[in-house]
């Protein structure tokens, strides 16, 4: 099972990542978000940052649908994210190795090509 501390450790292990001050977690590369806490919105109530759920950049609608349909017990979306290349992930439902792959892929899609060249298909070593 993964958690917010794992997200933080994995994201910060990637080059040129900046953590934005937040009540949860929020990571960017080249001023582009790639993983952050899910800002849950409920009618008539203040927004709540859910650190048990990560929002991940996935690149395109095809990848989003593949994750949602292929692993519905782990990934979900809401109407607020319709048309956006983003999915939500229940952190407790993935292991750290899978989370590492997802965070690295999200970073790779948002990082400038000159930065992403150094990351070899998620093969970097991060202590779990």
TrEMBL record:
InterPro entries: YjbR/MT2646/Rv2570-like (IPR058532). It comes from the Bacteria. This is MmcQ/YjbR family DNA-binding protein. It comes from Micromonospora sonchi.
């Amino acid at each position: 099972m993964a958690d917010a501390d794992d997200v933080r450790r994995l994201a910060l292990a990637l080059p040129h990542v900046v953590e934005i001050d937040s009540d949860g977690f929020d990571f960017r590369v080249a001023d582009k978000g790639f993983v952050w806490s899910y800002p849950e919105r409920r009618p008539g109530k203040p927004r709540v940052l859910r650190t048990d759920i990560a929002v991940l950049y996935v690149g395109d609608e095809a990848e989003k649908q593949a994750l949602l349909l292929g692993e519905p017990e782990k990934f979900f979306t809401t109407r607020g994210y319709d048309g956006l290349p983003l999915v939500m992930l229940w952190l407790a439902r993935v292991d750290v190795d899978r989370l590492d792959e997802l965070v690295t892929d999200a970073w790779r899609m948002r990082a400038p090509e000159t930065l992403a060249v150094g990351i070899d298909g998620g093969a970097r070593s991060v202590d779990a």
